[in-house]
Write a structure and sequence with these properties.
heterodimer, A: Thrombin, subunit H, 6-stranded mixed beta sheet, B: mainly beta, Thrombin, subunit H, tm1086 (SG structure) fold
């Protein structure tokens, strides 16, 4: 099928159900230590956030690694929770299968670590969701390719979002709208995929633990859900430095004061040098492209 | 002469065992940065023909530990062994044919969840022949908390007082002068960034870009080399930090996996680079300072 001068193999991609349940927030028995040596105890991970959704700021909250909307994990063995994380693609539809919100529809917006998947729901649904509720995702997107760009790896990206974003072919380049272009040297935790395994899982962080650099580079207005381009970064089979390569990703979680951490980026597209053209568009956010936040001005 | 708090540091024994080699992925191949399948030789076990002082590049290996890999099956003990062992600490074989043999800690490496966090120990070749996988070894752990008077804003970690003294460091104009074989820009740092503390494991200089390896001369690095990295900090975990500087010891070999490469165990870290003067000296290697390689 041809969309905006771009043909994909989406008709060949399998749609399959993967399942998770809303995870309870977690805390450790001790304080975590910040980059500047201070003890910290704040919320951030898991559960249901009632006032933070995709489209909201990634910085500025009294929080660490803030995860938006509903956070689901598969509580089965490793192969199953990995399958949820691997097969759920950003933009996929999700459905609540049990509880007060049964039948409500949501959208996958990002991933974290190699176990957590974030689903956005309208506010009235978020209020009805309970910890432990099961949510099923229609996984669709693994193996997505754009014709003529087989050397560009696409991962964790639903064909629907790729099309909604208005990505298009411009000569020998794939043009993708991005809210910001980030320097590769700022990428931190998740580099190499040591804990996340492969770039199809989880995320890696735009380091927010040198506040002077965050300010100087103008990153403090990054929002959860923003589509970013990362320079000099190849994420084909692991995340690593590669001059001229570009990785496109979506901001999945919020900032951090843990050394080497910051807003997480789930890679969506990895392109060798010269094959991808980031086009600046401040509105380039999953919530904007998929109409998830009509309450916000874009 | 620099004054330290060495007389306030506790010496204690920590114990581990020589671990079996491990694969990067449980069954099958690892995948290189450019999509090639690779069997990862060199993670764990006893390595006979590559020792501290030898080159890190050029081996058919990945994340190679030069010498003997020591860890513990219990995670909590493994972390304590790795955290408290310092580069230059004395090691003794406790069991097996090599019982009583003396070695030296020359590196610290970390492996992700489910795999072993290990220290690397140098033994003489005649002892390597006798050591067996599973042999127990103990480390005389000494160095955690080492501080240099007048340098409160320089954290010293993973460094034994023996090696500190052998390096013969000096102060010049308010700066700690540290010899290094190379100064690497912070943007090269990969896996290990964001890890909870720099007191265990290593932080990789990425070697997944052949172009950058050549441009920066990384291919000349040797196991045990001292390397400075600019614009990073390891004060409380590894992070980008403009104006920061660290010095580390090359603890494991190069890698072809994206985001990985030779790992540095940090020995000095500061958020203020004006406090450390990294002076290039091709001989800045742990093997030379501790006299471990008479053949080099």
């Amino acid at each position: 099928m041809r969309m905006a001068g771009m043909r994909t193999n989406k008709e060949r991609l399998v749609k399959l159900s993967v399942m998770g349940e809303i995870q309870h927030p977690t805390a450790t028995g001790g304080y975590r230590t910040t980059f500047d040596g201070k003890p910290l105890m704040v919320p951030g991970g898991a559960g249901v956030k009632l006032n933070v959704r995709v489209g909201d700021p990634a910085y500025g909250w009294v929080s660490d690694h803030l995860e938006p909307g509903a956070c689901i994990v598969n509580t089965g063995p490793a192969r199953q929770f990995t399958a949820l994380n691997a097969f759920a693609c950003v933009g996929n539809e999700a459905r609540v299968v049990a509880g007060d919100a049964k039948g409500a529809l949501g959208t996958v917006t990002g991933k974290h670590g190699w176990t957590k998947t974030f689903v956005d729901f309208p506010m009235e649904t978020l209020e009805r969701l309970a910890i432990g509720d099961r949510i099923q995702v229609t996984g669709w997107g693994v193996g997505l390719e754009v014709e003529g760009f087989e050397d560009v790896r696409i991962m964790s990206l639903s064909p629907a979002l790729l099309e909604a974003m208005g990505a298009r072919v411009e000569g020998s380049q794939l043009a993708v709208p991005v809210a910001k272009v980030v320097e590769g040297r700022m990428m931190g935790s998740g580099m190499g995929g040591g804990s996340g395994g492969i770039p199809d899982l989880g995320d890696f962080d735009v380091q927010s633990t040198c506040p002077e650099l965050t300010g100087a580079l103008g990153y403090s207005d990054i929002r959860i859900g923003d589509i970013l381009a990362i320079k000099d970064m190849l994420s084909h089979y692991a995340r690593g430095i590669h001059p001229g390569a570009v990785t496109i990703g979506v901001v999945s979680h919020g900032a951090s004061s843990m050394s080497g951490h910051g807003p997480g980026v789930s890679p969506l597209i990895s392109a060798p040098p010269g094959r991808l053209k980031p086009v600046l568009n401040p509105s380039s956010n999953v919530a904007y492209w998929l109409g998830l936040r009509p309450d916000k001005e874009w | 002469m620099l004054k330290t708090n060495v007389e306030n540091l506790v010496k204690m024994k920590v114990r581990g065992e020589v671990i079996h080699p491990e694969l990067w992925v449980e069954s099958g191949y690892a995948t290189t940065w450019d999509g090639r399948p690779k069997l990862t030789v060199g993670i764990g076990g006893i390595v006979h023909n590559v020792r501290v002082g030898d080159p890190v590049f050029g081996w058919v290996a990945d994340h190679l530990n030069a010498g003997v890999a020591v860890s513990d099956p219990d995670h909590a003990k493994q972390m304590a062994l790795n955290t408290f062992s310092c580069i230059g600490n004395r090691v003794k074989a406790l069991t097996g044919e090599a019982k009583g043999a003396r070695g030296v800690v020359v590196g610290k490496t970390y492996f992700f969840a489910g795999r072993s966090c290990r220290i690397v120990v140098h033994f003489e070749p005649e002892h390597l022949q006798k050591l067996a996988i599973g042999d127990r070894v103990e480390v005389e752990a000494w160095g955690t908390g080492l501080g240099v008077e007048g340098f409160d804003d320089v954290r010293v970690i993973n460094l034994s007082p023996d090696l500190f003294e052998a390096m013969g460091l000096e102060e010049k104009g308010g700066r700690l002068v540290v010899p290094v074989v190379s100064v690497v820009p912070g943007y090269m740092m990969g896996t290990g960034v964001g890890r909870g503390s720099a007191e265990y494991g290593a932080w990789d200089i990425q070697s997944c870009s052949p172009e950058l390896n050549e441009e920066l001369g990384l291919e000349g690095l040797r196991f045990g080399d001292l390397v400075a990295v600019t614009d990073v900090s390891c004060d409380y975990g590894n992070t980008v930090y403009e104006g920061g500087l660290i010095v580390g010891v090359v603890s494991h070999g190069a890698s072809e996996l994206g985001g990985h490469g030779p790992g540095l165990a940090t020995i000095f870290t500061t958020k203020n680079k004006d406090r450390i003067e990294a002076v290039v000296d091709a001989g800045a290697n742990v093997a030379r300072y501790l006299g471990l390689r008479g053949d080099l």
